Amino acid sequence: MAKVLYITANPFDETKSYSMAVGKEFIDAYKEVNKNDEVIHIDLYEEHIPHIDADVFQGWGKLQSGQGFEELSNEEKAKVSRLSELSEQFVNADKYVFVTPLWNLLFPPIMKTYLDSVAVAGKAFKHTDQGPVGLLTEKKALHIQASGGIYSYGPAADLEMAHRYLKVLMNFFGVPSFEGLFVEGHDATPEKAEEIKSNAIARAKEFASKF
């Protein structure tokens, strides 16, 4: 049985969002094929994801210096504990499905906050004399991304930074399998919007059968 984190970063549901519509079809199809797998939905707009701020750095610093957890302030305890929960949940999963829109060439800020919470040395990667080494070498990941224009290829491809960031980060973590499923061009060609979504849903269902 595999544990799958279905991580969504969109304030809207599948009735208003192209990425969420395709993501829902994907995960529903995946569940149908993999009935014994555990799928955990992490809605980043509903979860408490602490920013890495002064409280977090101070709390980490105290722990690294040998102080006990009880010596942290209440704010430090709450934030450090929550970040630890998130990172443990991430490294203990087997598969990751990231679902995001493309906003201003990147994913929503809450996704970066979440990724910062799981990019923990000693858990997702480690430092060595030869440089950083990823520790999540038996995982796999998928990124479902919707954008009004076309950014996965063509003249605007160099402007896209969301999927490229995730690709670099998954490689940094040592994740050997990372793929993208793009829903794009519905604002550039609104007359084809429904066709674009329908085609993406068909590809998502097909992908779910082998993910």
From TrEMBL:
Gene3D superfamilies: 3.40.50.360. This is FMN dependent NADH:quinone oxidoreductase. Binds 1 FMN per subunit. SUPFAM superfamilies: Flavoproteins. Its EC number is 1.6.5.-, 1.7.1.17. GO terms for molecular function: electron transfer activity; FMN binding; oxidoreductase activity, acting on NAD(P)H as acceptor; oxidoreductase activity, acting on NAD(P)H, quinone or similar compound as acceptor. It holds the Pfam family Flavodoxin_2. It comes from Aquibacillus halophilus. Homodimer. Residues 3-206 form the Flavodoxin-like fold domain.
